[in-house]
Amino acid sequence: MEELLKLPPITSAHGHLIDELIYKIHWLMFALFIGWTVYYVYVLIRFRQSKNPQANYTGTKTKFILYLTLIIAAIELVELFVFSLPVWANRIDISKTNDVLEVRIVAEQFAWNIHYPGNDGKFGTTDLKLVDADNPLGIDRTDANAKDDIITINQFNLPVNKPIYIHLTSKDVIHSLNLPYMRVKQDAIPGISVPVQFEANTTTKQLQEQVARYVSTSDSVRQFNLVSLQDYKANDGTVILAKYDYISDEANTTLRYAGITHIRVAEDIPSEIACAQLCGLGHFRMRGYMNVQTTEEFEAWMKEHEAELNQ
After folding, report:
1. What's the pTM?
2. For the chain, how many structural domains are there in total?
């Protein structure tokens, strides 16, 4: 089943539970498919025209369909109470302690606004009157708790191996936060703050190694977010393309002259934040990027943004 579905790599602590649930549901759906197919074939044979030249409005009196309906109901109850609810309970079992990173994510047409509380761990107050292009969440910077709050748009940075608690909502219509590698998907509903909890156990750089692929240097580069995953050098030892450098047509030309025909690449930030709910004409461009970092990298990123606030 894993090979058949070809699901993307798992980068969260609870992801394997979601995949196991998906496999079980597919097997149960396959069993239902077989059951209904058998009944369908039975009906075709039982009521074929040669045996029933005239319409029979009474139909079959067998209790098979009743038994089949009860079996289906039982299977669905098993799916809900035996499989789904325990997985859901496990995923939300993150105590809100000082070790949890709380983040607000506010969706809008067509962007993801991400609000970090800063070092004090407290979200500053917001005011609708303050909402504008430069302040999409209406943060009141005169509030003491808001002075160190960090706002990003479409860029979600988080530390690895640390529980994340997201307060998810929307400014306009229903959106859906979809983090495929994290096995997280949750609707963002206007007027409601929906909790989303997970823990990343793989950094973005580690994920790059998992999804890496080889491309030909003869191909024109159409995706400018591809980066090299190793150093490529000329015969004299000069580095043509360093690790994590972006791929370009010019670099490909130089690599070909050096006799290098294929290079190992990956997307610079492969873990995209997608909107899984049709939310308007610009739905296709509502894309964000999630960057899972080491604790040291994340702390450095936070300090960099806090320094920008103080300038």
Report:
1. 0.81
2. 3
Look up the domain containing 18 and give its range: 2-48+63-91
CA torsion, points 89, 93, 96, 97, in degrees to nearest 10? 170
Distance, CA of 138 to CA of 195 (rounded, Å): 21
Indicate whether 275 belongs to any domain: no
172-200 tens-digit pLDDT: 999 999 999 999 999 999 999 999 999 99
Distance CA 229, CA 246 (A): 10
Give the domain CATH number at 147: 2.60.40.420
Residues contacting residue 183 through CB under 8 Å, at least 6 positions apart: 10, 12, 14, 15, 18, 19, 198
Beta bridge pairs of residue 14: none
Cβ contacts of residue 261 below 8 Å, gap of 6+? 216, 217, 218
In a domain, 55, yes or no: no
